[in-house]
Specification:
The complex is a heterodimer of chains A (190) and B (191).
Chain A (H helix, E strand, L loop, with lengths): L3 E4 L2 E4 L3 H25 L7 H16 L29 H9 L3 H4 L3 H34 L10 H26 L8
Antiparallel strand pairs in A: 1-2
Chain B lengths: L3 E4 L2 E4 L3 H26 L5 H16 L25 H6 L17 H34 L11 H27 L8
Antiparallel strand pairs in B: 1-2
Helix pairs in contact in B: 1-2, 1-5, 2-5, 4-5
Classes of the chains: A mainly alpha (190), B mainly alpha (191).
Chain lengths: 190, 191
């Protein structure tokens, strides 16, 4: 895991676990607020599907990492790599060089055996949460199909779909959040 | 992982990878047939639940992981509560009574290596589930932007979501165990 987060040119020290936990809570609060707003204001949740997925992509790209080369958590797979590595020779194009200057070095993304074990453990825990959430979505869809029962209005399809999309968002962010939440304070580099 | 499967009182040797792979293929072939078949019965209206119970049954009888039975040891590592009372007559007739656990609980507890394998299998399964999740998103997107593309499919978007959720649920409950059964090499015969 990286010890600092770069946001808009600023470097935030993230060695303290307390700070990382605050960050996780803030990210999920913001995501929940945006999902709720999208559900309340849009006529159909389907209209916001792409927006929500882009939002999750940005969260991983800027803050969490894991599925992207940037962010606090190192990439889960070696297949995740940036366009440029900082240790590559500088490209000729001005635009490429702009990206190259901001890209990580190979060392920044390297993971060791311990990192891989923690990643597997975080994904295993996250899998349990995902199982329960998917079960919940299935029950909701079954309730949509049942329609109104015992004088209640019944579950609207849009609401079930919203929960399904929230589960997709959770699946894409939870392993990183678990790692950020559970890793102890990092020591200052000598 | 256990080397043999106790099925209706009979012991089936599963120490060879080839046999375990045949079992995995067989289980998913049955699931595929069940999903397709039940669609023609009532579009999963009331039979959708059977797919869920079939996944549970596959875990209980063959796969394990989430149950104490089956080939893969329980993921939680917890030893099931032992009952010393006589099993019911029905279970005795069906030969489905649980085998007595050994005193050292080796049959249920995962060692360090098995814990790593379990976590690795979940990591791999997670990627497959992520693909299914992205499929849900693609279906939602196509349903919104290009509804005429889906006109040829004899399903409403809701039925498609319901079916995808069922498939996801079935995969979630079975995939980590199947990955373990598929990837583990042949076991050596115990001395």
């Amino acid at each position: 895991m990286k010890s600092e987060l770069k946001v808009a040119g600023f470097k935030l020290d993230m060695r303290s676990r307390r700070r990382r936990r605050v960050l996780v809570v803030v990210v999920y609060l913001v995501l929940s607020a945006i999902i709720s707003a999208a559900f309340l204001w849009a006529p159909s949740i389907l209209e916001n599907v792409t927006l929500l997925l882009i939002l999750v992509g940005l969260t991983n790209q800027l803050v969490f990492g894991g599925l992207t080369p940037r962010g606090l958590v190192r990439p889960f797979s070696s297949a995740v790599r940036p366009l440029w590595f900082r240790d590559d020779p500088p490209p000729d194009s001005v635009i490429d060089r702009w990206f190259w200057r901001r890209s990580p070095s190979r060392k920044d993304l390297q993971t060791d055996e311990r990192d891989d074990r923690r990643r597997d453990r975080a994904l295993s825990v996250s899998y349990g949460v995902l199982s329960f959430s998917t079960y919940l979505v299935w029950v909701l869809f079954a309730m949509v199909r049942m329609g109104p029962v015992f004088g209640t209005k019944g579950v609207p399809f849009d609401f079930a779909l919203l929960v399904a999309l929230a589960v997709v968002m959770l699946a894409m962010t939870l392993p990183q959040a678990i790692l950020l939440w559970t890793e102890p304070d990092m020591e200052a580099e000598g | 992982m256990r080397a043999e499967l106790v099925l209706m009182g009979r012991r089936v040797d599963m120490s060879r990878r080839e046999r375990r792979r045949a079992l995995v293929v067989g289980i998913y072939a049955v699931f595929a047939a069940l999903i397709v078949g039940l669609w023609f019965v009532d579009q999963w209206r009331s039979t959708g639940t059977y797919i869920y119970w079939a996944a549970m049954l596959a875990c209980w009888l063959f796969l394990g992981g989430y149950y104490s039975g089956g080939l893969v040891k329980p993921f939680t590592g917890k030893v099931p509560r032992r009952s010393y009372s006589t099993p019911s007559l029905l279970l005795l007739k069906l030969r489905m009574y649980p085998a007595m656990a050994a005193d050292d609980d080796h049959d249920y507890r995962n060692d360090e290596r098995e814990l790593h394998q379990r976590d690795r299998a979940h990591y791999q399964a997670y990627q497959a589930i992520a693909v299914v999740a992205v499929t849900v998103w693609v279906v939602a997107y196509v349903g919104m932007e290009k509804p005429h593309w889906m006109a040829a499919i004899p399903m409403t978007p809701f039925q498609m979501f319901y079916g995808l959720t069922l498939v996801t649920l079935m995969l979630i409950f079975t995939l980590p165990q199947c990955i373990l059964l598929w990837t583990e090499p042949d076991m050596e015969a115990e001395g």
